[in-house]
Amino acid sequence: MEKSKIFEVYEMHKGRHKCIYTRSFAPGKSVYGENTVKKAGVEYREWDPTRSKIAAAIMKGCPNIFIRKGDIVLYLGAASGTTASHVSDIVQENGFVFALDFSPRVVRDLVYVCIDRRNMAPLLEDANRPDDYKDKITPEVDVVFQDIAQRDQVKIFLKNVEQFLKKGGYALLCVKSRSIDVSKKPKDIFRKVRYELEQKITIVDSRDLGPYEKDHMIFICKKK
Ligand code: SAM
After folding, report:
1. What is the model's pLDDT at position 149?
2. Residue 127 Cβ contacting ligand 1 at under 6 Å
3. DSSP letter assigned to residue 24
4. pLDDT exceeds cutoff 90 at 178
5. Ligand 1 centroid from CA 38, angstroms
6. Cβ partners under 8 Å of residue 189, min gap 6
7. Atom of ligand 1 nearest to the CA of 79
8. How far, CA to CA in Å, does 106 sit from each of 4, 53, 109, 142?
9. In the chain, what are the domains?
10. Does 83 sit in the ligand 1 pocket, CB within 6 Å?
11. For the chain, what percent of residues have pLDDT higher than 90?
């Protein structure tokens, strides 16, 4: 097990295949049936790029995901906590993950993940209505991450970035082209998203997430 170039992310080779890991913040607790490895008394959780778009971005060569130890993260579209649990591993005890989703079905599972992790809280809220949760989170966060399959996902993302992200903070947006418009080519959708983002925020990196996620792109942005 070796440290990777990404903060708090580790890597190990299984034959010619590279696997990535985070150091578990809740040893002994599996979130989605992920493999674990113990080395020198430390438990590492394998981060599956076919189940998590941040892991896919790392496997696609992103040199930095800009989430660090101690960061406060607003995570929009946490579902049952698969990726959010790895973010919780990264930010560790001095960081915090506000894990938001509007579906009661997935938040029920997310609650159990948060019980095992002191640095993570579930919020049953609609990301399109930040005023409804502004009093439940810190006024400023270090990172906004969004993974929601909605037609107006860019508008929702920028609304949250404007309201909660600190100046100079980082924001990661996962875009599923088919949720925006099934009839248009993904590359045309992504070009339009890029243009909309550039009006408000600086894009520092972007990656197509194929073959891990078809017709998905991640944009990594910095607030001006
Ligand atoms: N990010 C998750 C992971 O990697 O573990 C998977 C997220 S899943 C693709 C998208 C989630 O977004 C769903 O759980 C859905 O309920 C949620 N969602 C969609 N629109 C939303 C909204 N307006 N507010 C909050 N959650 C939303």
Report:
1. 87
2. yes
3. -
4. no
5. 31
6. 175, 177, 180, 181
7. 14
8. 31, 18, 5, 25
9. 2-46 (3.30.200), 53-222 (3.40.50.150)
10. yes
11. 93
Q: What per-residue confidence (pLDDT) applies to 125? A: 98
97 lines ligand 1 (CB under 6 A): no
Global pTM value = 0.97
Check if 206 has its Cβ closer than 6 Å to any atom of ligand 1.
Answer: no
Does residue 52 line the site of ligand 1, with CB under 6 A? Answer: yes
Q: Locate 212 and state its tokens.
A: 């891990």
Helical axes 104-115 vs 82-91, angle rounded to 10°: 30
Q: Tokens standing for 149?
A: 């399959």
Mean pLDDT value of segment 134-152: 96
Q: Is the pLDDT of residue 24 over 90?
A: yes
Q: Is the pLDDT of residue 62 over 90?
A: yes
CA distance 21 to 89: 10
Residue 36, ligand 1, Cβ within 6 A: no
